[in-house]
Amino acid sequence: MKVKQYLIEKGFEFKEVNRSSGINAIMLCPFCHGGEKHEKTFAINLETGAWNCMRLNNCGLQGSFYNLQVKLGDKQMFNQTTVSTKPKVYTKPKPEVLRLDNKSLEYLKKRGFIEETINRFKIFISKKGEIGLPFYKNKRLVNVKYRTIDKKFRQEKNAEPCLFNSDNACGDTLIITEGEFDCMALGQYGFDAVTSLPSGTSDHRWIENEWDFLEQFTTIYLCMDDDEAGHKAIHTLVTRLGGWRCMSVTFPRKDALDCLRAGMSKGTMQQCFDDAKDFPPAALELASNFYEEVVDLFDCPDKLDGIPTGFPGLDYYLKGWRKGELTVWTGQNGSGKTTILNQICLFLTSKNIKTCIASLELKPARYLRWAVCQALGKGFPKTYEINNVFQWLYEKMYILNVSEVISPEQIFEVFEYAARRYGVEHFVIDSLMAIKLPDKDEYLGQKEFVSQLLSFVKKHKVHCHLVAHPRKTTSDRDKPDKVDVKGASEITNLADNVLAIWKPEYLEGKPDNDPDAVLYVKKNREFGELGGIKLFFDKYSKRLICKDQVFDFKISEEF
Asked: Are the C-beta atoms of residues 541 and 374 closer than 8 Å to each other?
């Protein structure tokens, strides 16, 4: 099956782009998902199946079509069509080796090399008078790179790609330079296990070919030229070889050869290696870096509290809404999820906190009609009162005008804009069922969406409320629990808080003191306390309130 058909079968969304390498499919990376910005950085050639992710510092994965299938857990579901699976057969070079003439020897000496170094690296000249740089692997000559005095280069045809001087590298530390002369320069300084890239910074075929050889090294020093190509090469090599063992070396001159010609001492060069830069993950820090912040939380425990919810009983358990958290709401149809979320948004508005609501199951006008009733506390307001509400809501509440299901990319684009441009702090998604997720694996799509939602709230330091419907039970009278949320278990596992609202059904008339609904705290990551609060519905104000609670938004006093 061809590459394009495979992507379609997997449910990936992509667009085709004509590049110099051929037609490529551009899409979200299936491994890093484009990072926090969800950028489409993944490109796969629809003819060869070769792919890579452009997020070099964070992902940067690349490989063959076969490798992609294995990484996605398919164990080569489909056969490659244009990529050969046969082992590569290389041509064994048979150069005519001549001793260096005086002209070539003088050239190498002017470059800073002594005869001992020239002999150690077995440098020779060809019949054409080119300087020959031999590549050995397991004591076999596998390639020769030729260069003229005026810097024209060529290699043996169909030669095996491998590191220059790799046969002389042993131990647990490896040095990789950008060019053969840089390798020879460091060798002349007395550094061991020095190698060089075989054909510039853009050719990475040697990595796969040398993989077993590279596995033995726990530290790899990268000595690339101090230019754009060298910097780009470092990012690629760190990704491919492993950031945990790579170190970047910066010299006082552009490269090691320039340092040799400038007369830099061995001590100066050694200091460059001692000062080499490592590549720790951005998220990895010493625990001691947070000492002052932890002490502050003990001294001022109220900093763990968030913005009041508007419901004293809920504040007792959650201590308010905190930034950077995700709250999942669940409950049977008609239990009051939308009603209570409306009230919370209105309460936040009364505190001058901006909200953005994706009411994907109600059109904006119908949603806002209900909100007006709740804000005013009456079911049939006058026109001037409606006007007062909308003036009160102006630039404080935003709503998505969506008439159909929306993709994760679309909703994050809108939310990011609202957070950055308008300073929105609370977001509501009602509900998860209205998000268009990949058809192939619904549970995986839900997990990825909730993971992206968590990244969003932490990045922008906002709070998000996500409505997730419960599974069908044998009776509507069954109380919902955290495990009853319909869909992937990660929905509640990843959430900071899980709230379930339950509307009891009475076989006869409801006693006056019995609640119309109960809001249960099923997960409370920060404080751990679980419990429930009784809520009573006021049909005139359309509000759910705790008993004896005064819930007044004071709109009329402002206008």
From this structure: yes
- What's the rounded Cα separation, in Å, for the pair 39 and 484? 33
Cα–Cα dist 380/373, whole Å? 7
Question: Angle at CA 385, nearest 5°, toward 353 and 374?
Answer: 55
Strand-pair partners of 143: 135
Across 378-392, b (16+ Cβ under 10 Å) vs e yields eeebeeebbebbeeb
How many Cβ atoms are within 10 Å of 204's Cβ, its own excluded? 17
In the chain, count H helices and then E strands. 19, 23
Closest CA to 424 of 455, 467, 457: 457
Strand partners, 28: none
Q: Which parts of the chain have pLDDT scores under 70?
A: 1, 20-21, 56-57, 75-87, 283, 403, 439-440, 472-478, 507-509, 548-559
- Which tokens belong to 123? 């440098």
Residue 371 φ/ψ region, left for φ over 0, alpha for ψ in the -120 to 50 degree band, beta for the rest: alpha
Cβ–Cβ under 8 Å, residues 515 and 504: yes
Question: In 360-441, at which residue ranges do the beta strands (DSSP E only) sit?
Answer: 397-399, 426-430
Integer Cα distance of 544 and 307 in angstroms: 19
DSSP string, 236-282: HHHHHH-TTTEEE---SSSSHHHHHHTT--HHHHHHHHHT-EE---T
Candidates 85, 87, 35, 92; CA nearest to 60 is: 35
Cα 37–chain centre separation:
8
Distance CA 180, CA 1 (A): 43
Q: What is the pTM of this model?
A: 0.56
What count of other Cβ atoms lies within 10 Å of the Cβ of residue 223? 29
The DSSP call for residue 483 is G
* Type and span of the H or E element at 193: none
The Cα–Cα gap between 145 and 115 comes to: 20
**Do residues 498 and 479 lie in contact, with contact meaning Cβ atoms separated by under 8 Å?**
no
How far CA 60 is from CA of 22, 81, 236, 279, 547, in Å, comes to 20, 25, 7, 14, 57
Q: What is the pLDDT of residue 283?
A: 67
pLDDT tens for each residue of 437-455? 876 677 888 888 999 999 9
- Give the angle 197-202-204 at the CA atoms, nearest 5°: 60
103: how many CB neighbours lie within 10 A of its CB? Answer: 10
DSSP 199: S
Segments of 400-496 assigned E as strands: 426-430, 463-467
For 19, which DSSP code? E
CB 356 within 8 A of CB 398: yes
Whether residue 275 contacts residue 242, with contact meaning beta carbons closer than 8 Å, is answered with no
Rounded CA separation 541/259 (Å): 81
